[in-house]
């Protein structure tokens, strides 16, 4: 069931979303060659708890960390560990933060040092695919309008659209109805209504769109080992359009 948030719930989700934005701004300077993904997770965990909030991912269905740290060919759900970032890597930091019972969620892909032109292209156009999807949000439009716009933009730029993963509603729970795919048909799916809050999150690849699940049962990687990027915002449907609850602060 798709929930319509009350004014009180929207205010709490704005605070949760702003904490997500502040955490991304906080961690960005640390994303450098030589740091481990485990250290990034430790720093963010301390930031979250010091702001009287909860790292929602930690413990979710057994996930061990506060962050998902997905490097290069890892699409989503990379588990922080002893891997040291290298010059030329790209890394997606995906985090969900709970504040007084409500969630904020955003992912961003970051460059480590100097990256090659292919990764720059992938990051630029995955970010623009997110912008294109968000621009379709207004009352009366449908989820399929968002999905189709992302797919059209990605395929026009020769990027693979991962189909096994999608965006979602959000509120008290990290994942709520409706699902928000990154491919689809315009004018299909649930209608957008004021007070709905959704996460829009294109996950695109520089090569084929096929993915595989690693033996850790979490990390999803590209089947052809090509790099992947992932950008996500938590978005409120307003009376006349939308409001991004996880704005970039950097």
Your description of this structure?
The chain is globular, with a radius of gyration of 17 Å. A 5-stranded antiparallel beta sheet has the order 8-7-9-14-15. Strands 1, 2, 4 and 5 form a 4-stranded antiparallel beta sheet that branches. A 3-stranded antiparallel beta sheet has the order 3-12-11, with no helix packed on it. It has 4 helices and 15 strands. It has 250 residues and is of the alpha+beta class.
What structural keywords apply?
250 residues, alpha+beta, 5-stranded antiparallel sheet, 4-stranded antiparallel sheet, 15 strands
Q: Sheet bearing the most strands, described? A: 5 strands, antiparallel
Main sheet: strand order: 8-7-9-14-15
* Average pLDDT figure: 98
In total, how many beta strands? 15
Q: List segments where confidence is low: pLDDT < 50 over at least 5 consecutive residues.
A: none
H-E order? HHEEEEEHHEEEEEEEEEE
The assigned structural class equals: alpha+beta
Using the alpha-carbon principal axes, give the shape: globular
Helix content: 25-40%
**Strand residue content:** 25-35%
Oligomer: single chain
Overall radius of gyration = 17 Å
How many helices? The count is 4
Distance between the termini: 35 Å
